[in-house]
Amino acid sequence: MLWDGTCQHRRYAKSDMKSVPTIRFLGAAGTVTGSRFLLEQDKTRVLIDAGMFQGLKELRLKNWDAFPIKPESINAIALTHAHLDHSGYLPLLVREGFSGPIYLTEYTAKLAEVVLRDSAHLQTEDAAYAARKGFSKHSQPLPLYDDEDVTRTVQLFRTVSFRQRIEIAQDTAVTFHPSGHILGASFIDVEFAGKRLLFTGDMGRNQHPLLVPPDHFPSGHFDAVLTESTYGDRKHESPTNSFRDAINRTISRGGTVIIPAFAVDRTEVILMELHRLIDYQEIKRVPIYVDSPMALTTLEYYRDALHNRSPEIRIEIVSEWSSGDPFDPGDLHEMRSVEDSKKLNDPHTPCIIISASGMATGGRVVHHLAGSLPHSENSVILVGYQAVGTRGRLLEEGALTVKIHGELIPVKAEILAIEAFSVHADSAELLSWLSGASQAPDKVFVVHGEQSVAEKFASTLKEELNWNCEVPKDGQQFPI
Ligand SMILES: [Zn+2]
């Protein structure tokens, strides 16, 4: 009996003891997409970001893998920003049973809804296409999620202000700070089970033409920092005249300039640059078409943020554009309907077409590429990150043909990739921002970069700051 009693006592003492808090990497480990980081202690589970995998087919298939824990067991989610590789998995979690709050900033909420509805639409279309063509192994191919799942997801959104500490679950508080990456984007200071962690999300640059620079690295001690490393192995070129020159060459040949652009933010940055070049008479005024319903909805939110004097918008831009439109250099055409878009298939006169998707994996830009690539008077200017496995990456690497709608299209048009428009910090910029930490964090996890790039950035951090770095593997779990 005495033995039994001791055992009872020991069992009670054990269950009263809290387990060590941990972090699990459920994506963006050795790759740039699928950001999903799970914080766990006993029954508390908090997820930072819920992104989709994009790019190579083997990555995209991972979106279909069963989530390693029951989604209903997650207490809360915090979202750094609206891009699909950070937000695109949310509707699936909701479909599978998650019903807790999702914390995010006001403009992340607005933009995430646009991004998620577009994603649901594309997936529903893909499933219907697979059913028609009969190439799915399922007799009734299903989308990953649909518009109804998105509606249920946005109902869970809880908007928060920047720089305000807010409790989101037991023993968990978060503070969002502007990261200068896209409208609404944040890095998040997370207090979890007595530990403090920093999630950079995607880190922007000081020179975004519209957005305020990222807040400084918060003061104090951090147990862990998760830093992105998309461009962790290189330095962005300084803005050069190559964008202007390529446009001028194309216009003088009587051709069309196609700019595949991420619908969120890149379209705005490109339009502002075109506005500047036209104002300074560095390029001729030619018709500019924005041919992407998602980009146009986003554009309205950027205009809204500017005219509402959102604190995320640079003060000098707010005063310069108290009236007028920084995005319209005078001949801007917003192509909303499919009929509008089709009219652009053979524009006849020199013009600039900005269309999504940014890596030419889908969307209306694919039709424009199919029509333009075979003709040498045209040009394609790539202005964003092109992931491995995308058409954009093939073009960037000089492919002589690309497959579009099952057909091999010859690439005769001039192809140019310009990194100066990147809204990701490069290696030196990331290092400079991280070195603003008042104390070395106990542990640094380098994520959101292709494997070799993440490793290179981890060694840079070790060499330059003597930080204790790790490049986690997919599924790995660490005590904090
Ligand atoms: Zn992003």
Radius of gyration: 24 Å
Number of strands: 22
Q: What topology, given as strand order, has the largest sheet?
A: 6-5-4-3-2-1-22
Which cofactor or ligand species appear?
Answer: zinc ion
Number of helices: 15
User: In percent, how helical is the residue content?
Assistant: 25-40%
Based on secondary structure, the structural category is alpha/beta
CA(first)-CA(last) distance: 40 Å
Major sheet description: 7 strands, mixed
What average pLDDT do the residues reach?
Answer: 91
General description of the model:
The protein has 480 residues and is an alpha/beta fold. Helices cover 32% and strands 19% of the residues. Helix 5 (106-133) runs antiparallel to helix 6 and helix 5 packs antiparallel against helix 9. The relative contact order is 0.14. Zinc ion (ZN) binds at residues 81, 83, 181, 202.
Per-chain topology:
Blueprint: H1 2-16, E1 22-25, E2 37-41, E3 44-48, H2 57-60, E4 76-78, H3 84-87, H4 90-95, E5 102-105, H5 106-133, H6 147-154, E6 157-160, E7 166-169, E8 172-178, E9 186-192, E10 195-199, E11 224-227, H7 242-252, E12 256-260, H8 266-279, E13 288-290, H9 293-307, H10 315-320, E14 332-334, H11 338-343, E15 351-355, H12 365-372, E16 379-382, H13 391-396, E17 401-404, E18 407-410, E19 414-417, H14 427-434, E20 443-446, H15 451-465, E21 469-470, E22 477-479
Parallel strand pairs: 3-4, 4-5, 5-6, 10-11, 11-20, 12-15, 12-16, 13-14, 13-15, 16-19, 20-21
Antiparallel strand pairs: 1-2, 1-22, 2-3, 7-8, 8-9, 9-10, 17-18
Helix pairs in contact: 5-6, 5-9
The chain binds zinc ion.
